[in-house]
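Title: Request for sanity check on Bifunctional NAD(P)H-hydrate repair enzyme prediction

Description:
We are preparing a figure and want to confirm that the structure record we downloaded matches what your pipeline produces today. Could someone re-run it with the sequence below and paste the raw structure tokens into this thread? We only need the token string, no images.
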Amino acid sequence: MSKHLSDLLLTPAEMAAVDKAAAASGIDSFGLMERAGAAVAAAALRLHPAALRFVVLCGPGNNGGDAYVAARHLQEGGATVALFHLGDPSKLEGDAARARAGCALQAQGLELYRPESGDVIVDGLFGAGLGRAVPAAVRTVIEQVDEADIPVLAIDLPSGLDGRTGKVLGAAFRARNTITFMTRKPGHLLMPGRELCGELAVFDIGIPARIVRAEAGGIIAENKTDAWKAVLPPEQLETHKYKRGHLVVFSGEADKTGAARMSAASGLRAGAGLVTVAAPHAAIAANAAHLTAVMLHAIDGEAELEDWLSDSRLQTFVLGPGFGVGARARAYVTALADRRLVLDADGISSFKDDPHQLFDLFQGEPRLVLTPHEGEFSRLFPDIGGDDALGKVDKALAAARRANAAVVYKGADTVIASPDGRALINTNAPAWLATAGSGDVLAGIIGGLLAQGLPAFEAAAAGVWLHGEAARRAGKGLTAEDLAAAVLPL
């Protein structure tokens, strides 16, 4: 677990438990609200020194209480402030009611707000706890603010975002900045929440670290090196190529060999001791014309594969990139059921008609890594993929449990999930990584790490992180070939 609280991800329910535990320990909960509101006001003044008017929107809960405190501090700081509330403020309770009572500004109903030039919105309507679609009055204001292009500073989360899933609940503000407290939520990292939050800052309001950590489930985290560096193989001078692992990548037919070569090159650069492309006899020449450090082995069917697998050093495989969809892929996967396998692209789609045929092969200690994009995920897990009540992390975890595999649910917010309930959200991938062939490179990187002995989940997570770092290194305008060349071992 990270040493820094700001690196943790707590769900809204876990953060609510932190607040409750802090109050139970004797910490002044209104003091926490006071510090939160003061931090918001300070951020507003720092970020928008030229604002003509701060429009503070106060909701019916503690997020609204933070907003009332912020409004008071803004006014005391000499700013022009307009206050608007959602619902009946006389029904506020506890700290939120106290915050409202301490704010001398006269508030108006939210429906009366009209955007003016020079406005800056301070959004304290809902925060992370929203679990339903926003009311019509809120949707109207969101649309007005968006149309007028008024900057928004969100408290905790832009109103309308689900703090656990990052989903938009009917409508949501697009914040230029978001300030949250103590830790982040999954919704800050998952799309579209990550984009809608704008620049995110985490402010320590004084809850002791021991209380925060006690309530942190640790099930969902950001994909950083702390999550997997402990299982990386040690660097040893006395070693040889087989100790660093042998990775095999299956090639497609003669006119579909490029994807496998990119996977193979990436696996080699990720640190595998040696890499072999296993190709049909008819595709050997096409592959040989482009390969040097990567070896070649001819295989035309199941019988030849079974014979080759008698070599016990062959333990780790990548199947799918450019391989072709169909019975041959299913037969090869069946032959590899007792080995470590990264199944990608065509390999995944080959099991769309009977996914459990695949899942039944890989029971026991997880040794299968699945790397689906959204379409492939829905082919393999149609009921999970089609469940709109689930967020991306929930879907990836459900899929990992069903398949007994590490699942890399790809996208701008790639989620890596383990059958044991762990999930990581990746954040280091730049936008220009979305290019043809990048998935082939990722499959090879993960295969190279698996070959070196990393467990399936850690190999998948480290591979996704390395993939993002390679893209940053290669820069904008990269091709998959550039990406593979930019991969560096851990």
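Thanks, this matches our download. The radius of gyration is 26 Å.
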